[in-house]
Write a structure and sequence with these properties.
Radius of gyration: 20 Å
Strand content: 15-25%
Strand order of the largest sheet: 1-2-9-6-5-3-4
Bound molecules: nicotinamide-adenine-dinucleotide
Number of strands: 11
Order of helices and strands: EEHEHHEHEHEHEEEHHHHHHHEEH
Shape: globular
Helix content: 40-55%
């Protein structure tokens, strides 16, 4: 088992990473003196595929405990999804001495983290990510929240967990399209980290989709170490942390425009291609770099499908994204591997052209 420390000033916490380590959850709860009343929010699909493992945890918890079964979808990552969790907490008499545990993917982790950060002005919280995407990204860094009206993640808080436990055994029941989603989010790190990460993913991307245990663990460790370091330097996203949003301004708008039929990790892949198109348009990268960089996300081209896309709606949705200000959309764009430019603004026609060129790779002709 690996232990990776996230050193946010005033809130340090470990990420435990290993196969089969869920059976150490209760031990870690005791070790970190978190043994209070326990409220678990578990993804319904986890309960279906890993019932024995979850039940074993519940059995071994020697305290007041409750399991809220959550249906993970972007539609249910909402005010109403959160309300149902608050109602269980309140009706069952949970109080300030509650430890909330999220067991599931990024959707479950985001909404549960939000509830934990606001219930009784904040109770302790543990993340147990069960998708590749949540293992490499969303479980670390403390962003919580839900979607409201037509905007992704528009309501949220920064709230760090007590610890994160990544048990890679959960990943074995993920359908292929969820492994593609996780891979999409991992591609972002190829541009954020360095040339070696880029080349390694280019060479071995299929090892992620086929869940090669050694490679998957190595990549999860690299991503969470990198993200942990960035968040430690800029927890509230006033500067450096913005680089983690590479491809995301486009991605969130695609998710909304496609009515969430395009999943987050797929949308991030398309968003990275659009970001590269815009980088080329604005002269941040030359044609050679553009061709080379684009070849990585396009390895997933046949696994992602957009049927039709309203570019004007994508543009209007991007304008509403919380990262913009004064009606200006702000982008994070690659200038090189390991070198990102943040807060880039661009003329509307160039943005729309980048969207059009980017999605053309994923539009399937019938
Ligand atoms: N907080 C952050 O910093 C951050 C970062 C990136 C993404 N996100 C958010 O994360 C969300 C996407 O997360 P996700 O891709 O994990 O999606 P998800 O939580 O919806 O999980 C994907 C699907 O897999 C199922 N599932 C989960 N674990 C499983 C397992 N082990 N076996 C079988 N099925 C399983 C779920 O029920 C769901 O149907 C988005 O809402 C995105 O906005 C947040």
């Amino acid at each position: 088992m690996k232990k990776i420390e996230v050193k946010i000033p005033g809130k340090e916490y470990p990420i435990f990473l290993g196969e089969g380590i869920i059976n150490r959850l209760v031990q870690f709860i005791k070790l970190y003196k978190l043994n209070q009343n326990i409220f678990i929010v578990v993804d319904r699909n986890i309960l279906r595929s890993h019932a024995a493992r979850v039940e074993d945890i519940i059995k071994r918890l020697n305290c007041k405990k409750f399991m809220h079964v959550y249906d993970a979808s972007e539609a249910n990552k909402s005010f109403f999804g959160a309300e149902k969790i608050y109602l269980d907490l309140i009706n069952l008499g949970f109080t300030r001495d509650t430890l909330v545990i999220a067991i599931g993917g990024g959707i479950t982790g985001d909404i549960t983290g939000f509830v934990a950060s606001t219930f009784m002005r904040g109770v302790k919280f543990i993340q147990v990510p069960t998708t590749l995407l949540s293992a490499v990204d969303s479980s670390v860094g403390g962003k919580t929240g839900f979607n409201f009206e037509e905007t992704k993640n528009i309501v949220g808080t920064f709230y760090q967990p007590e610890f994160v436990l990544v048990d890679t055994a959960f990943l074995k029941t993920l359908p292929e399209d969820e492994l593609i989603c996780g891979t999409g989010e991992i591609l972002k790190y190829a541009f954020l980290i360095d040339e070696e990460m880029f080349d390694s993913l280019h060479r071995d991307i299929t090892k992620l989709i086929t869940l090669n245990a050694g490679f998957v663990s190595k990549i999860i460790e690299k991503c969470v170490r990198f993200k942990g370091d960035v968040v430690a330097k800029d927890e509230k996203e006033s500067g450096l942390r913005k680089i983690l949003n590479l491809g995301h301004t486009f991605a969130h708008a695609f998710e909304v425009e496609q009515n969430y039929l395009l999943k987050h990790g797929q949308a991030v892949t398309v968003g990275i291609v659009c970001a590269l198109e815009l980088s080329l348009e604005l002269g941040l990268i030359n044609q050679n770099k553009y061709e080379r960089f684009k070849s990585l996300p396009l390895l997933l081209k046949d696994k992602i499908e957009i049927k039709h896309c309203d570019i004007n709606l994508v543009y209007e949705t991007m304008k509403r994204d919380k990262k913009g200000s004064e009606d200006k959309i702000k982008f994070v764009l690659p200038a090189d591997l390991g070198r990102l430019v943040v807060d880039v603004t661009a003329p509307e026609e160039k943005v729309k052209l980048a969207v059009q060129k980017g999605i053309s790779n994923f539009i399937k002709q019938i």
